[in-house]
Amino acid sequence: MSDVFEKCRSWKDYRIAKATGLYPYYRAIEESYGATEVQIEGRRIIMVGSNNYLGLSADPRVKEAAIKAVERYGTTCSGSRLLNGTLALHEELEQRLAKFLNREAAVVISTGFQTNLALSSILGRHDIVFADRQNHASLVDGIRLSFATERKFRHNDLEHLEQLLQQAAEKEPKAGKIIITDGVFSMEGDVCDLPRIVELAQKYGARVMTDDAHAMGVLGEKGRGTSEYFGLEKETDLVMGTFSKSFASLGGVLSGPSDVINYIRHKSRSVIFSASMTPASIASALKALEIIEAEPQRRARLLDIAEKMHNGFRAMGFDTGVSVTPVVPVHIGDQVKCFRFWKALHEAGVFANPVIPPAVEAGHALIRTSYMATHTDEQLDRVLDTFEQIGKKMDVIPQTRPSTYTPVQIARPGTMVRNNKASEKWAAASEGHNGHNGFTLDQLSRMSSREVAGKLFDAVETLTWRAANLQPEDIRKLGQMPMKLWEKRATLPGILLEKGANFFIRNGHEDRS
């Protein structure tokens, strides 16, 4: 008889990551200094891993609004919006957001994730959802919770989308259709091709929704997001946004036609069976919205910073991929090297985020950085210097800066840019085509004993970590192995991991904190 908990006991990724000192997650922030710097483990470090794009979480006006709301209403509403959890503040925020976004109505929901789960209430058995493969996990789950059919198109591949729409028109002409996409993609920082999506939607009779979690407050002249940026607000049926980024709070919003929003209010489980946004969260979002409308210079500063960092990294030889936004990913490639790069950054006083499969394709591990309008040039220069030092030490970038590089054009109002031309390396990694090349015997013969020892340690660390994260493509590469070994493939990673973990633990490398 199997035990439902067995998978938890046998999961070894965490143990080996801790044993090798490469565990990057759940780092407790002990104090914040104006949001751009934080204290972790008693050390003050620069924060470039936050989505606090406008830096408003530390704004005294936003904090004061939250304090006053708690003094007036208490700490929680203790109920759902449907019953006792609606405050006048909720209604004010919804009315203000609907006006700000040029929509008929808006509904605010307790978290951004729950906001996308609310989609399931309007998607029925006879509906088809066309979704970008790189959409956020909350969109994926919101669609899965519905009874609709999902058809995924390759990331920003609108020819593939049209093929799927055409097939649906021929085989299921009576089905309701909606195209759902991120506005700004959260890992790689590129922008959806909304003009072409709208064109296809009109051609095939589909609705359009954008998830503007990373675009609202950032893109467009007024900060209304992707549809404003492209001048397609009337053609975009539903817009979703979150408050945990530019709005310095917690929660989310869906905005669109009043009858659709009213239906969601009364039918969505994530609305009617969840406690409403707290008074402090609503008041913070309201004050942040007021600042977003009154201070466009914050967006201008943010985009200036994005341009500085993209081109600063590229001038050193780093690859920032297709991004044209304040999400600035730095390509590393190998996931073990990515974790080691993260650790070196952390030790040098820079907080960034390592991103590995399945969040990105295998061989496409990256360090995700993101910036705030309140970062100083001194802080940014220190981040660039730190990346350069580590990049050279780990052979991610050349020892000598390249003589030329392709500058990035940022998605400023009126530019209409969607992405930066991807390098061949980035494109190959995005498609999962990166190989893992070793070094030759000739190269080995020229190394010092210390270099050889370092390479061997790296190899052991890499093999152990890869065993913990065996990917389908790794299994495919083993297709020619003897059948008996193939039959034992399920137990091999565990054996390797156990021995690797025991080795590190015996030698005092396990982090027991």
Structure classification = alpha/beta
Q: Work out the helix count.
A: 21
Shape: globular
Helical content class:
40-55%
Strand content: 5-15%
For the sheet with most strands, the description reads: 7 strands, mixed
- Largest beta sheet: what is the strand line-up? 4-10-9-8-7-5-6
3D structure, described in words:
- With 513 residues, the protein is of the alpha/beta class.
- Helices cover 43% and strands 13% of the residues.
- The strands form 3 sheets. It has a 7-stranded mixed sheet with strand order 4-10-9-8-7-5-6, sandwiched between helices. A 4-stranded mixed sheet has the order 1-2-3-12.
- α13 runs parallel beside α15 (377-393).
- The protein is globular and about 60 Å long.
- The protein starts with 5 loop residues before the first helix and ends in a 7-residue tail after the last helix.
Question: Could you name the key traits of this structure?
Answer:
43% helix, 21 helices, 13% strand, 513 residues, four-stranded mixed beta sheet, single chain, alpha/beta, seven-stranded mixed beta sheet, disordered C terminus
